[in-house]
From TrEMBL:
One of its GO terms (biological process) is plant-type secondary cell wall biogenesis. Belongs to the fasciclin-like AGP family. Its main location: membrane. It comes from Vitis vinifera. InterPro entries: FAS1_dom_sf (IPR036378), FAS1_domain (IPR000782), FLA_A (IPR045003). This is FAS1 domain-containing protein. Keywords: Cell membrane, Glycoprotein, GPI-anchor, Lipoprotein, Membrane, Proteoglycan, Signal. The keyword Cell inner membrane does not apply. Residues 1-22 form the signal peptide. Residues 34-177 form the FAS1 domain. Transmembrane segments: none annotated. The lineage of its organism: Eukaryota, Viridiplantae, Streptophyta, Embryophyta, Tracheophyta. Residues 195-209 have a biased composition (Low complexity). Residues 182-220 are annotated as: Disordered. Pfam families: Fasciclin (PF02469).
């Protein structure tokens, strides 16, 4: 009579002491050491083009310095390799070094933004691109928890949160952010300066004056000789 209850109690005790295989483990602790934006992006393997731009423009060093040396919060919008492949063929290679620098800076916001904080940002959102918000506008709208953004040329949204630690937030986007300021024509070169005779060096006038004086000297000498001859003749006749 006691065998069945005893075996049941032993079975319950054994199951209680054995951890369930499907139980989720505790999250891994955050890595120690300085934050590196390239290391964050490399974990996924989908951002090789963006990483190459970060390195070629040296903005990766700038971001790391802002995070680790200045303790400044940042938000980075990371386009996937598929996003870059959707650009017009040859467009990326046609950009100058300055344009590539502005392009990457347009994907960096100089403050930390969590998803809920996008609901209260002021439009246009200021990025680190030069030219100000007039040339590089980035407007944010929310649809539930979905963050949408538009630049006037591109409409996209945040598709994934890659990293967030209260200081750095990295979000995946499926389109490259392009702005009008990136394609504005360069300022026209100033017209060439025309020569003005009045601007001629003063020495040139002196040279012309000297030459004119030299031309007048023979005539003066001839007049002087003629006058001397006339005086001699008059004296000769007088005497």
């Amino acid at each position: 009579m006691l065998k069945q209850p005893l075996s049941t109690l032993l079975l319950i005790f054994f199951l209680h002491c054995t951890p369930a295989s499907g139980q989720s483990s505790a999250p891994a602790p955050a890595p120690s050491g300085p934050i590196n934006i390239v290391s964050v992006l490399k974990k996924s393997g989908k951002y090789t083009t963006f990483i190459r731009l970060l390195k070629s423009t040296q903005i990766d060093d700038q971001i790391n310095s802002q995070l680790n040396d200045l303790n400044q919060g940042l938000t980075v919008f990371a386009p996937t390799d598929s996003a870059f492949s959707n650009l017009k063929p040859g467009m990326l290679n046609s950009l100058t070094d300055q344009q590539k620098f502005q392009l990457v800076q347009f994907h960096v916001v100089p403050s930390f933004l969590s998803i809920p904080q996008f609901q209260t940002v002021s439009n246009p959102l200021r990025t680190q691109a030069g030219g100000g918000t007039a040339q590089f506008p980035l407007n944010i709208t929310m649809s539930g928890n979905q963050v949408n953004m538009t630049t006037g040329r591109v409409n996209t949204s945040l598709t994934n949160t890659l990293y967030t630690d209260g200081q750095l937030a990295v979000y995946e986007i499926d389109q490259v952010l392009l702005a009008e300021g990136l394609f504005r024509p360069p300022a026209p070169a100033p017209p060439p300066k025309t020569s003005d005779p009045s601007d001629a060096p003063s020495g040139s006038n002196g040279a012309s004056d000297d030459s004119s004086d030299a031309k007048d000297r023979p005539h003066s000498a001839q007049k002087l000789v003629s006058f001397g001859v006339a005086v001699i003749v008059i004296l000769h006749l007088w005497l």
